[in-house]
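User: My collaborator sent over this chain with a note saying "see what the structure looks like." That's all I know about it. Can you take a look?
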Amino acid sequence: MYQKILVPIDGSPTSELGLKEAIRIARATRARLRLIHVIDELSFAFTADAYSYRAGELLDLVRKNGARVLEASLEKAKAAEVEADTVLYENLDRTVKQRVLDEALAWKADLIVIGTHGRRGPSRLVLGSSAEGIMRGAAVPVLLVRAPEGVA
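Assistant: Without extra context I'll predict from the sequence alone. Here is the result:
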């Protein structure tokens, strides 16, 4: 069964649903979790547009936020008595999809669990879907945990 489960985390309610399911599976299979947060060019650019910071200050802010998200997620896994570790990547030259797929291969993950909005139509085309890209490119099974309607 699954022994190594990779869980991309971004701090959103949808990501939290993915984490919750990954913890449930890890408890049942005695698997280890790797929680990964990726700072990519797109998220950095959106944050830069929203705030008037210099690039260095902004990157530090985004890095600290990513570390907080990972620490909170790690505490949830530990509270459920699930072994876990965290990885924070700053890949301003790579997409979240690319980094997650690379990590899954390098760490030899058995499963990737991702929370997803399950968007369709124009909203999916405009916003894109890291989850869909990961699912299509992964060499291991991917579990998409869809958020109920109304969850951001």
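A starting point for your reply to your collaborator: The longest strand covers residues 32-40.
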